[in-house]
Design brief:
With 176 residues, the chain is α/β, with parallel strands linked by helices. Helix content is 39%, strand content 15%.
């Protein structure tokens, strides 16, 4: 027996239960519904954040390369080498911050590379007879510095006093 639908009459037979089942299975509302503008804003914010992270890592990498030619660099993760997934996947410049720099043969012009190290806590200038009061301008811009050792440099007492004024939270040790 064939069921035919006439205009204006409701469905009869098997078509009605199937239509009811299909309407029950289709969700009434989507779980996460975003507009295109919202998605573009989220992607833009993520891209800006990623560019800041990558730019900081590249500046640190360039500064470390220049400083390692003059002395040694110690990273924050050196005390306890972590075997995290990110450390394995990415370069050390993305996962660790430089916290201490030891320089033994630096001049005033070499200190400009220290600006890129945003979390530098210790700076040890050992036997750097080419560093003068003019080079302290580069050091005074490092606000995170907690300890500075000036060994056998040409920095005057006036330069050390100005540096102590510019970096009040920094312990400055100057030896002749």
């Amino acid at each position: 027996m064939l069921v035919r639908r006439e205009l204006g009459k409701p469905l009869v037979g098997m078509a009605k239960p199937i239509a009811k089942l299909v309407s029950m299975l289709t969700p009434k509302r989507r779980w996460a519904q975003f507009s295109l503008a919202t998605m573009l804003i989220v992607v833009t914010v993520l891209c800006v954040w990623l560019s800041v992270v990558v730019n900081r890592a590249h500046r640190q990498r360039d500064a470390v390369a220049a400083i390692q030619a003059l002395g040694a660099v110690r990273y924050l993760g050196d005390e306890a080498e972590s075997k995290s997934f990110l450390r394995w996947l990415l370069s050390r410049d993305y996962t660790d911050e430089v916290v201490t720099v030891y320089l033994s043969k630096a001049s005033d012009s070499d200190l400009i590379h220290l600006h890129s190290l945003s979390r530098l806590h210790g700076l040890y200038l050992l036997g750097t007879s080419q560093i003068t009061d003019a080079g302290l301008v580069h050091i005074s811009a490092i606000t995170s510095l907690e300890r500075l050792f000036l060994g056998r440099s040409k920095v005057s007492d006036l330069g050390v006093a100005e540096l102590k004024e510019a970096l009040p939270n920094c312990e400055i040790i100057a030896s002749p």
